[in-house]
Amino acid sequence: xxxxxxxxxxxxxxxxxxxxxxxxxxxxxxxxLYHFNLGTKTHNLPEMFGDVKFVxxxxxxxRMRAFAKFMHQELGLPGDTDEITDICEGTxxxxxxxxxxxxxxxxxxxxxxxxxxxxxxxxxxxxASCRDVNIFRIGTSGGIGLxxxxxxxxxxxxxxxxxxxxxxxxxxxxxxxxxxxxxxLADELLQYSREMPDLPTVIGNTMCTYDFYEGQGRLDGAxxxxxxxxxxxxxxxxxxxxxxxxxxxxxxxxxxCRVCNLKAAVVCVTLLNRFxxxxxxxxxxxxxxxxxxxxxxxAQFIKKTLGLI
Length: 309
Ligand code: R2B
Ligand code: URA
Fold this sequence. Notes:
There is one protein chain. By secondary structure, this protein is α/β, with parallel strands linked by helices. Helices cover about 30% and strands about 25% of the residues. It has 8 helices and 12 strands. It has helices at about 10-15, 45-50, 60-75, 110-125, 185-195, 230-240, 250-260, 285-305; strands at about 30-35, 40, 55-60, 95-100, 100-105, 135-145, 150-160, 165-170, 175-180, 200-210, 245, 265-275. The protein has a 5-stranded mixed β-barrel, surrounded by 4 helices. It has a two-stranded antiparallel ribbon with strand order 1-2. A hairpin with a 2-residue loop joins strand 4 (about 95-100) and strand 5. Helix 3 packs across helix 8 (about 285-305) and helix 4 runs parallel beside helix 7 (about 250-260). About 40% of the residues are buried. InterPro entries: Nucleoside_phosphorylase_CS, Nucleoside_phosphorylase_d, Nucleoside_phosphorylase_sf, Uridine_phosphorylase_euk.
């Protein structure tokens, strides 16, 4: 790296870099990001993604397209939002949209789906030499003791035993990784939420499970092996451990971002209060509005960080 008289390149040089923790990558002549239909030989990743500063991930492809269009408007970018195309259109595994410095990607449902996406995303950001990147999961969740529509900024991502860890099985052994998130980023998001009307927001622990039904203590799945009292006792224990919402990706998201030096936050809206029931019976239009809430909060963060407001 050459340093010019203004020192700008040096400044860039000291900005936090994305760490890929895999010595084998250096020995590979080409890296094919199979589930994105992108690769280091077929695409100029630094040119396509080098300016990315904010990455937002969420379960649904449609929601992440809507978020990209919303960010296009919020950032006042030129051109028509209908021209925003799916960078991964050659595959139907994930969808990816780029608007200015914002990358919006879908990850599907559950730990295995988001983990595959994150491996390829982190390598993509590394190959593109991105620096100083903030990453957000914007999603939905079931609330514990909160009014539906409340946004939860995650303090700690915890597993089904309320432990702040993610257990990854590697070669038949369990590797335990910390799920600690960036406390300053969470605080900043919480502060900005205070300035926004109609955005009830709390900070709390988020429990990540491997199932939507029995795994989240639901009585309405195809299988159920416990009583209503046992369900409520488990939710009460979760509440006492600081858990305010339940979803299906936060622990692996937190663990992988932490190891790779990405500043990460999890922002999920609650669709229901699990003390009151299990079925999601709220009208569709109301659910659509709820799902925009994490998007609005993260958009506010991005605009403030870019000095636009
Ligand atoms: C939240 O919503 C999905 C299940 O409905 C899952 O991906 C999650 O974490
Ligand atoms: N997503 C979940 O994982 N659980 C819920 O209860 C609602 C959305």
